[in-house]
Amino acid sequence: MGKGFSFPHPFFSSKSSWKWFILTTVLVGATMSALDVSIVNVAMPTLQHSFNVSLALIEWVAMAYMLTLTIFLPLFGRLADMYGRTKLYTTGFVVFTIGSVLCGMSPTASFLIFSRVLQAVGAGLLQANSVAIITAAFPGNERGKAIGIQGAVQAVAMSIGPFVGGLLIKAVSWRAIFYVNLPIGIIGVLMALLILPKSESSGKKEKIDFFGILTFSPGLACMVLALNKGEKLGWTSNTILAYFALAAVLLTAFVITELKVEHPMIDLKLFKSYTFSAGNITGMLSYYVLFAILFLMPFYMEEVLHYGVALTGSLLTPIPLAMAFVAPVAGSISDKHGSRVMTTSGMLVCALATFFLMFMGESAHLTWLVLDLVVLGIGMGMFTPPNNSAIMGAAPREKLGLAGGILNMTRSLGLIFGVDISGLIFTSLKHSYYVSKGFSLADTKTIPAEVRNDAFMHGFMVVMGVLVGINIIAAILSVAKKDEGLLSAEEMKEFAAGD
Questions:
Q1: Domain range 12-208, CATH class
Q2: Is 1 helix (H, G, I), strand (E, B) or coil?
Q3: Checking CA distances to 336, which of 141, 204, 290, 481 falls within 20 to 30 Å?
Q4: In terms of Cα–Cα distance, which of 204, 256, 248 is closest to 78?
Q5: What pLDDT sits at residue 16?
Q6: For residues 187 and 192, what is the distance between their CA atoms, to the nearest angstrom?
Q7: Mean pLDDT, to the nearest integer, of 467-480?
Q8: 59-74: buried (b, 16+ CB within 10 Å) or exposed (e) per residue?
Q9: Mean pLDDT, all residues of the chain
Q10: What's the pLDDT tens digit per position in 37-94?
Q11: CB-based contacts of 3: which residues, under 8 Å, 6+ apart?
């Protein structure tokens, strides 16, 4: 590992011992941020009723968080490379905790939305630096395992979020789902101060690329808003067209600028590495598939299979639980044999699971449905840690923060695209089926149940077919990757000695 690494406790005099404490500290932040994403979703109806506001306004409690997190991740990673990852990671704990307390104290929905933005800034500082800190602490032949453990913890936290949120809301109030972050945040800050290595900055006098910030973040925000609000406002509405136009102008200006400035916000040279580029693209595609399925499956289970809300919620947990079980194992295998085999196999397993979802039909057997969702989780668990490890291994050490920010940004975009684009395809096909059968869209309640089910399955099967294709594309891109970042035996000895 590089110069400047210091151990805050005299009893731990080697990186081999201390790296696991560093990972544990990162896991606290991973748990807190992942838990918060899913724990809030279950509270949305309660929040709307509590504040007595429209659904359109309360949706911004989730939207403001996701939008803020997505657009600032590369910036936070870049700043971490400039001024020190540990410093910004610890700041992330503080900001997230303060934002959580303000969320719990919120007297109005507008104040809650503002507090969620602040919370997202803290989460962004944590996410942009977590993988970078792990990569800096672990050698190449252990990095995949460490990243796999982080992924497992995040998957478990996301899976139990709705359950924990429901208990807290019922036993205390919706405010408790935010206050629960206070003790976790305090523990995280103390651990970061005592355990994480001294911040390593680039050591160079670099100017902040303000023009890059002012073009990239608003440009990405406009694109996300256009995709998210397109179906509701109409894809040809002036608002959506304006969003797309602004996104095109701002992001084009950003790319042109980044190729010319001395110290760009995002070093586009990173994308010259096929492993880095393909890793981020396939990571985005994998999240597109995962969250498209997580978005559509509740509708399928409730509207077609007529399962209750509680059963539907429990049937979605096998995906993250399977991911949590497989991720550390997949990371360890990739450490020994490279990431290419695991990432390619993982996407092919996901393609197989998605293919079988196409033919579940209107009377799917519960056992086969659960098994298929488990297989999907296994595929995602096989793919994600090795892919993240390959991305970070392909990035220069001084760019690890930026690489981590880009990695998490592309996955967030995959989430957004998966929900919005798949939702658009599904809804359009369902409505076109109604029209083809001679029914009016003005009053869908009068359409017979049999026709509604047929229309649903028509749209559902096409979307699943598209997802199968996306999985196969990701597998093809993965098989061409090179395995970078693995250390030789001599390099391992140097790493352990702290040279």
A1: mainly alpha
A2: coil
A3: 290
A4: 204
A5: 58
A6: 9
A7: 92
A8: bbbbbbbbbbbbbbbb
A9: 82
A10: 777 777 777 888 888 887 778 878 888 888 888 888 888 888 887 888 888 888 998 9
A11: none
Give the C-alpha separation, 376 to 348, whole Å.
10
CB-CB contact of 32 with 184 (8 Å):
yes
Same fold flag, 12-208 and 269-499: yes
Both tokens of residue 124? 């962004």
Q: pLDDT band at residue 134, thresholds of 50, 70 and 90?
A: confident
CA pair distance 112, 193, nearest whole angstrom: 29
Chain-centroid distance of CA 238 in Å reads 30
CA 189 – CA 94 distance, rounded (Å): 7
d(CA 123, CA 121): 5
**Which residue's structure tokens are 């151990």?**
7
Statement: residue 4 has pLDDT above 60:
no
Are 274 and 339 a contacting pair, CB within 8 Å?
A: no
> Is the pTM above the cut of 0.85?
no
Average pLDDT over residues 401-427: 85
Report the SS3 class of residue 234.
coil
Domain positions in the chain are 12-208, 209-262, 269-499
**Alpha-carbon gap, residue 484 to 462, rounded angstroms:** 37
Distances (CA, A) of 53 to 57, 58, 59, 61, 111: 7, 7, 10, 12, 13
Amino acid at 2: G
CA distance 349 to 431: 31
Work out the average pLDDT over 482-492: 47
